[in-house]
Amino acid sequence: QSALTQPPSASGSPGQSVTISCTGTSSDVGGYKYVSWYQQYPGKAPKLMIYEVSKRPSGVPDRFSGSKSGNTASLTVSGLQAEDEADYYCSSYAGSRGWVFGGGTKLTVL
Amino acid sequence: EVQLVESGGGLVQPGGSLRLSCVGSGFTFSSSWMTWVRQAPGKGLEWVADIKPDGSEKSYVDSVKGRFTISRDNAKNSLHLQMNSLRVEDTAVYYCARQGDWNFEWWGQGTLVTVSS
Prior knowledge:
heterodimer, A: mainly beta, six-stranded mixed sheet, three-stranded antiparallel sheet, B: mainly beta, four-stranded antiparallel sheet, globular
């Protein structure tokens, strides 16, 4: 059982927006601004998409955005494209526990 | 270009040992926090351990404390994970990653560890 809770699946049609949630506690997501999101294609390594809740690394499309409210962080993908179909994982710093991840969400573009 | 290349994975019996290595290039290895993250087959990601740039601080997930040891050799731009007393549940792809500003900025391609009799 993962420390952070994500929905197992999410879906949307091309051009639509989809939001993936990531729920933790006040000891991780709610206690720190260090929430990040990773995209992973089957058989490939994860790729950093969002860090510090809402910052985008260079090269990540601005269709990807992040936010946080209380103990829940969210990743929103706007203007869905076929290439966005992948698994998405959230992560948070958790103090003395180190780092925790969510169980992952499989995003399907219909 | 940042590159992280893991090696050392393989098949090992329960109770056995294995040493993973990761060589980094394209960035200042000696100034970077480094991390091991694993992913069991068909499962999610799990942080395993990390180490400060000078090697003076190390942290582990509870499930590997006392069995795994993370280390580094900055002269060789290499990161290691010594895994002892391996269990079936340690079976996973092990990734090394460079930590950026409170995130896992760059990842290697991973090395598969299979613990089975």
